[in-house]
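Researcher: If convenient, please comment on what follows.
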Amino acid sequence: MIAFTNEKAKGKGLLKRDDQGDYWWELRDCAYYPEFEKEKIVWQEIVREPSFAYDSGEFYCEATSFLMTGNNLKYLIAVLNSEPGTFFFKQFYAGGGLGEEGYRYKKAFLERLPIPLVSSQNKDIAKELEALVNRILSLTQSEDYLENLQKQARVKEYERQIDQLVYRLYELTDEEIRVVEGDNYVKA
C-alpha cells in the first residue's frame, strides 16, 4: 500500500506504509479478522425488534451490523432476544427510540444491560436456555422451515419458554412480568 506523504516529507514522493494490510483491499492490517471465523452473535444496528442471530461459521458482517464473540453465546442470545431482554434494553437504552418503533442496538447501549453472568445459582436455567436455542436453531435451519407452519409454531413455543426462563433468571414477580408484557400478559 502506498500512502501520500505529509507536508514535512514533501518532495520525497510517496512512502510505503508500515501498517499496510495483507490484502489489496485493506488500508491497514486488520487484527480482528479471526473474530469472524469464531462462534458469534451477529446483529443489525437499527431494528424494530431484536434480531440477534447465532453464527457458528464464517459470516462476515459489514457496516451497520455487529458481532460478539466469547463464552455462553447461546445463553446470551436467549436473553437478548427474549421479551424481558427487549424490555430491559428499552429501559436502559441511552439514546431513546428511532421514530415510533426503531432502536439502535449499539455496543455502548448493550453493555448497559443487566445480564446475569452464568453462575452456580443460575447454571440450570442457563442450560435450559441453551437447549431451547439449540432446538430453535435446528428447526430454523431446516430447508422447509419457511413453509412449515408446525415448525414455526414450535419455535414460537420455544421462544415463550425462553421468556419464562428469563423471568425466572431475573426473579421477576407476576406484577413485574405484567409490566414487561403489558397487555400480552398471561400467567404461566
